[in-house]
Amino acid sequence: MSGERAPLTDDGHHVVIDGRRWRATDPMVPEERRAELQRVLMAWRRDVRRTRGTAEEKRSRAGVQAAKVALGERGEPWWEQSDAERRARWETDVPMPD
Predict the structure, then answer these.
(1) C-alpha atoms less than 13 angstroms from C-alpha of 26 in its C-beta half-sphere
(2) Which residue ranges have biased composition labelled Basic and acidic residues (predicted)?
(3) Domain spans in the chain, listed from the N-terminal domain onward
(4) Rounded alpha-carbon distances, angstroms, from residue 14 to 8, 9, 18, 33, 65
């Protein structure tokens, strides 16, 4: 899907990929921050593959979770949060893997 966004459900809360619904990224996340969080997410996903089956895998998966929560793709649904809660969520520091 290089550069192309997946189609959204009518309510805008989910994307549909291969017939499966996934929670959409919070549309209020500023584009620069969204790009940064997506880079962090991809780095953590690579780290999960690198650490699979080791004691470090749990930390790598926690990094994926933190990035997905910051993007609004996991955790409390972004459409149920106040604007201040949403901003605090995406502004949370999500470090890159070592």
Answers:
(1) 30
(2) 71-92
(3) 26-91
(4) 6, 5, 13, 20, 18
